[in-house]
Amino acid sequence: MAGNCHCINCKKATGSGYAPVLFVPKDSVEITGDVRYYQTTGKRGFCPNCGSSLFEDPAVENPGEFLSGMLGICAGSLDDLSQYKPEIDIFTSRSATWECMDPNLPKFSEMPSPD
Ligand SMILES: [Zn+2]
């Protein structure tokens, strides 16, 4: 699942309107090198050297829910940016008036249900 998250947490993490996040099964990811985590409603992983956002781990925020077992990779951190193809906008109820969204993407005011 790939989506632009407009939640307040992602705004704070990016200093922008939303975070483009590619969600993959957590056990499919091998993390090498140093990552520091900041605990909020979930966990945000970032590079301890340059501060770049790397991961969004929603497990704490959504135990047993839609994104359980998934790890969000911050799309801007990908070496090949074309790997990110956003499918949805989520938490649009938290959008700022100055945010621009792709009108062709489905919008969810909160986190969509797994159905
Ligand atoms: Zn978010």
Describe the protein's topology:
Layout lengths: L1 E4 L2 H7 L4 E7 L10 E4 L3 E4 L6 E5 L12 E5 L13 E3 L25
The structure holds zinc ion.
The site of zinc ion has 6 residues, from α1.
Attribute tags:
mainly beta, glutathione-dependent formaldehyde- activating enzyme (gfa), 115 residues, GFA family protein, binds zinc ion, 1 helix, single chain
CATH architecture assignment: Alpha-Beta Complex
User: Would you tell me the structural class of the helices and strands?
Assistant: mainly beta
What is the CATH H-level superfamily? Answer: glutathione-dependent formaldehyde- activating enzyme (gfa)
Number of domains: 1
**Average pLDDT level:** 90
Count of helix runs: 1
Helical percentage:
under 10%
The radius of gyration is 13 Å
Ligand inventory: zinc ion
How far apart lie the N and C ends? 14 Å
Largest sheet properties: 7 strands, mixed
In N-to-C order, the SSE pattern is EHEEEEEE
Q: How do the strands of the widest beta sheet line up side by side?
A: 3-4-5-6-2-1-7
Query: What's the count of strands?
Result: 7
Uncertain ranges: none
Family: Belongs to the Gfa family.
Protein name: GFA family protein
Domain CENP-V/GFA: 1-99
Organism: Microbulbifer halophilus
